[in-house]
Structure formats: C-alpha cells, structure tokens
Design goal:
Layout: H1 8-29, H2 34-79, H3 85-102
Length: 103
C-alpha cells in the first residue's frame, strides 16, 4: 500500500514494523549499515509519535482556553457593573497560569 494512502497512525505503525524487520535482517545477514538505517528510522518514528501526541495535547489545551476566554467575556458583558473581587481573583489566577504555560 502506498504511504500516501495511510493515515499517520498506520504509517507510524508500519514504519516501526519495517524498521524492526530491517534490524532483524541486519542481525541475520551482517549487512553493513542496515542496523544504522533501521535504528535511525525507529528514532525518527518515535519523535514523530511524540510530536503527534504533543500536538493533540496542545489542541485540547487550546480548546479549554478558548472556552474559558468565552466564559470570561460573557461574564464581563453580563455583569454590567463590574466583576466581583472573587471573580477578578479567579481571572488573575488564570492569567498567571497562562504566563507559566507560555514559558
């Protein structure tokens, strides 16, 4: 199956299977550089998997931030007379959290 027809999950899986098979072939034949190619390929696929997982986490975090921002904006509009000290404290805590997350 051509690699372009696979989704990322399947492509990562099949790449790891191929690289592992190539490592076994290198062990069996002693052919030079096969083990290196297989090892580097496994390392790259692991890095891509980590990036994929980090991307999914970032998307979930951004979705949560978006919901909170919309909630804060709604509270500000509906309050009319300003926010309570407790609400301002909560918004300040959220701002601090965002500063730490950006660093």
């Amino acid at each position: 199956m051509p690699a372009s027809a696979l989704n990322l999950y399947d492509l990562l899986h099949y790449t790891r299977v191929s690289a592992t098979a190539l490592q076994d072939l290198a062990d069996a034949t002693g052919a030079p550089f096969l083990k290196t190619v297989a090892g580097v390929s496994l390392s790259i696929s692991s890095m891509i998997q980590d990036v994929r997982m980090n991307r999914e986490r970032c998307v979930r975090m951004l979705q949560g931030i978006h919901k909170l921002l919309c909630g804060i904006a709604t509270l500000c509009v509906r309050s009319g007379h300003g926010l309570s000290p407790k609400m301002l404290d909560n918004i300040g805590s959220f701002a601090q959290y965002l500063r730490v997350a950006v660093r």
